[in-house]
Design goal:
By secondary structure, this protein is an alpha+beta fold. The chain has one domain: Gcn5-related N-acetyltransferase (GNAT) (Aminopeptidase, 3-Layer(aba) Sandwich). It has helices at residues 13-29, 40-43, 91-105, 122-130; strands at residues 4-7, 48-54, 61-71, 74-82, 110-116, 134-135, 148-154.
């Protein structure tokens, strides 16, 4: 069965636990100044839309993804995560395609993102490149960082 993607308000406690795992992973592989993942409170901002990916019965949270509005035509992909035991099954691509479609539907023409440069993040970088993202310079408030890799692509 196809998983269900829903725009989420982050009120389900399973989401907080899932995002805490994400932060733990990021802190484990990156120095503190290079961790750009957002906690649940920072994801509840008006310029961020957050989606969750669930099994069709909503019993298992499979993944997350968010879009942070940078300006009228540029958004940032944030909080992309697939459940550890579900990685490699196409769920990240499903969420990324959903985010791209949602961005395009509201007039976004450019998506950018930051991910790690360490080996841990190689599957993420490969996913983004498979979906047309190309390396770019730091954007928005980011600064050059040897622990970060920046990507962008046009959509629409």
């Amino acid at each position: 069965m196809k998983p269900a993607i829903r725009l989420d308000d982050l009120s389900d406690p399973r989401i907080a636990a899932f995002m805490e795992e994400h932060l733990v992973d990021m802190r484990r592989v990156s120095p503190p100044e290079s961790v750009h993942a957002l906690d649940v409170d920072r994801l509840r901002q008006p310029d961020i839309r957050f989606w969750t990916l669930w099994t069709t019965d909503s019993n298992e949270l499979l993944g997350t993804g968010a879009l942070k509005q940078l300006d009228a035509t540029h958004s940032e992909v944030k909080s992309m995560r697939t459940a550890t035991d579900r990685r490699g099954n196409g769920l990240g691509g499903l969420m990324l395609r959903h985010l791209m479609a949602q961005a395009q539907a509201v007039g976004i023409t450019r998506l950018s993102l930051e991910t790690g440069s360490q080996d841990f993040f190689a599957p993420a970088r490969a996913l983004y490149q498979r979906h047309g993202f190309v390396p770019c310079e730091p954007f928005a408030d980011y600064k050059p960082d040897p622990n970060s890799a920046f990507f962008t692509r046009t959509i629409g």
